[in-house]
Amino acid sequence: MVTKGGNRDIVTGALVVAVAALVLGIVYVTQKTPGESDDSDGYLVTARFSRLDGIAVGSPVRLSGLPVGKVAALSLAPDFRAVTSLRIRSDVQLPSDTAAAIHTDGLLGSKFVVLQPGAEDRVLTSGQEIPFTQDSMVIEDLMEMIIQQGRAKRGYLDRPLPSISN
Description:
Elements: H1 6-30, E1 43-49, E2 60-63, E3 66-76, E4 82-88, E5 99-104, E6 111-116, E7 132-134, H2 139-154
Parallel strand pairs: 2-6, 5-7
Antiparallel strand pairs: 1-4, 2-3, 3-4, 5-6
């Protein structure tokens, strides 16, 4: 049963839903998480990796499990290594022998850059490069390595596995 004002009620309801979605979108975009800084805050350091699987611009950079920055840019060097620009908060001073590694949140989670500070007295300044890096580990490569080690241990490395059939 459609009332006389039925179309008006539908339009009003749609407008209310659209305004609510717009307000939620604005709140989500403008809300900062604890420890997050503006894109212009902090300083840039670079790190070179052979593999960056799963890392993108905006991926978090963590130190002791806490967010201290984000990946600002990615590029390819002439030696075919991936160069990352990391924007680090200005209140975080990294020793010059800091290491950067790519870790995964759980088995299939998102990837992020982990900083492991060294013991040097000198600190990295804007534009300098992190000297030590550890590449991303791809789960498929890890599984293939485990399978190959199992086959080698059982003596089936160069021949097919036996089948169980009648």
